[in-house]
Prior knowledge:
By secondary structure, this protein is of the alpha+beta class. The protein is built from 34 helices and 25 strands. The strands form eight sheets. A five-stranded mixed beta sheet has the order 18-19-17-16-20, covered by helices on one side. A five-stranded antiparallel beta sheet has the order 24-23-22-21-25. A four-stranded antiparallel beta sheet has the order 12-13-15-14. Strand 1 (about 120-125) and strand 2 (about 130) form a beta hairpin. Helix 20 packs across helix 26, helix 21 (about 420-435) packs across helix 24 (about 475-490) and helix 28 (about 570-575) packs across helix 30. The chain is elongated.
Amino acid sequence: MGTTTPPRTLAEALRARGDESLAGLLRARPDLLNPVPNDITQLATRAGTRASVVRALEHLDRFALQTAEALAVAPDPAPYGTLLSLLTGDGLDDGEQREDAGAAITAALPGALATLREQALVWGEDDRLRLVRTARELLAPSPQHPSPTGLGPTVAEATAGMSPGRIQEILAATGLPATHDPVSAVAALSSLFTDRTRMAELLDTAPVEALSVLDRLVWGPPYGEVTPNPTPPVKWLRDRGLLLPVSTRTVVLPREAALHLRAGRAHRVPEPTPPAVATAAERDPQAVDRAAAGQAFTALATVEELLKHWNGGGPTILRAGGLSVRELKRTATALDVPEPAAAFWVELAYGAGLVASDGESDERYAPTPASDEWLDLPAGDRWTHLAAAWLAATRTPGLVGGQDAKGRALSALGPELDRSAAPDVRRRVLALFAELPPGAAPDPETLLRRLRWERPLRGGPAPAASGSAEGTDLRSRLALWTLNEAELLGVTGRGALSSQARALLEEGEGAAAALLAPLLPDPLDHVLLQADLTAVAPGPLERPLAETLSVLADVESKGGATVYRFTPGSVRRALDAGQTASDLHAFLAAHSRTPVPQPLSYLIDDVARRHGHLRIGAASAYVRCDDEAVLNEILADRRSTGLRLRRLAPTVLASQADPGPLLEALRDMGYAPAAESADGDVLITRAGARRTPPRTPPVPVPEGPPVPDDTLLGAAVRAIRAGDTAATVIRKDTSEDPSSPTPSGSLPRTTSAETLATVQAAAMTGSTVWIGYVNADGAASQRVIAPVRVEGGFVTAYDHTADEVRTYPLHRITGVVELAEDGGG
């Protein structure tokens, strides 16, 4: 601005800033950009709104917040020295430790003050520091909202409704001269409480019990209840104004007296530096990478098992959305994990776009087409896909099993699991891991302490107007869930960050996959068949082998090696899928490193011989068999009574049951029936491959407006500057009546002829004009333009507001005013 006059308002302080400083404000508080303010005054007004100030306070670290809290209880405006004294104390009780703390505060205060200034929470020069009014209201003490510092109101505020006679009684009790001016009386009492020598002399005469009362109130809360007949110590304090009445039963320790008892400090423990994250254990970095890779392999296997489990159509969806408790238990049993872990894997697959709702009338969860593409990727790429989805997800599996604000249970895949702070907490936790040496496992308690220091209003008590509907410790809970989920996913190993996770955070998915791939076991193309009808897979199997074997045999146990068991039911399942006995013999011979045991060959041949001997079709249903004795056996079996069978021919039975239930019932009776079509052909029932229509992964719910990029910030700053020029520039007075100038903030108004003549003249002379413009949507704005060409009912001009050449219809211009020659700037 080219002036040294101190700013009188926040708007003037912002107007004096450079473009980089304004861009820094908009970057730190992106909510101010929605929509882009018309001018500096509107920006300052928006920066002082309650919601915006609360959001800004929530993003302060503990010391910056303590600085703001100190300013809230300091005189307004406050000199830098007063602020420093409130944080360090008056130095009269300093020991060596206090001196060290004072030096740390002195060194850290300029940075904290710069942060508050950048975010437009504090303005003014160092000799007149002002906290914005809304922040002062949020942080200053009141009976409804005690100050975070624990300080009460000043003597002047506490005695505002007190009678002059009562004030005179307090003056007399403290030995001060009487005065008939209430303002002078209050000033005299305040002066006494702020005078270290006189205040010490007064307290030396206090009863010991009275000093005990003050000790209980000094660090807050400063309010206490009294009876109509207070005890002598309380009466002594009340008579001398050390306890001032708030109501008939409540008294308060005035701020000046509390500060004396605190040696001038606003906070009991100022925290100018962030607490260090301690190392709980130091491990071999290579061992950490191997452990994390092993868990990453388990994560891939678990997600693959989930997709296989839901391959033919997963669980039904609750009417309110999500999985029922019963379905989550079934999924946990199928994955062989606890229910909280099952909720995590289900949410991870959903967040990665691998499972979704199928959208049918009988709505179910099922794998998406993207899951098939994911399964075809190399193992390293599959893991980075999951890890990246986890980092960005706002869905929070740790909430599953809890209740929302209305007492309703929160279910896995339900609609109420998004917490916008989750991605920021995850990345910050991993960043703190990354600051430690490779192989170092952080101590969880010190890590949580560091997170609380960085965002105290997110991890601790919120300000009075934050409106937090969740518990005050959500950020800490998110951090603890992050520690558990990172270990489950293989981001960390043995409590330390793995090299592949560091690469994912710093270099991207490609680098992480390249580091992980050599640590994962190569898939095998063989199994070891054993005489007890089992097959042992000594490691991960190639996908085609694993898929075929999962149909032919049942998984009996998992671990370092997977054990499959062959049963009549599993062999029949393979035959139902279209395999023949010779196909199965050839498959086992090709993929076994040991000879095919004779019992297994006999099992396959025996099941194949009986498979399809019975044929079931739709009559409602019928049973057909060339062997009459088998049909006689079925009719004689008491278990077939519910099927209501009757003989139609020597080789055909009819049933009133549908083909599907009839097929399952006969299988339960020990037979191996096959379904057939209307043409008599055997129906092949392959393993289900139900897929949803193409789905996009759930979009994370952002935490407030996104941080704008440099291009948007530059354009916004130019628009605000141009709008401010339009609002504050000196304009030529073209009216004949000097008493009717254009009101500030309103659009200029001229006739169509005047508008046309003015813009034509500006185009000829190259001058700049101020216009009012209404767009097609009816939104009005003020613009500063330099007309270049006027023709065909349009004016083409360089728009200083948008910093580009634009064309405007003349009929949408409400009016135009020339700028004075000395007012352009």
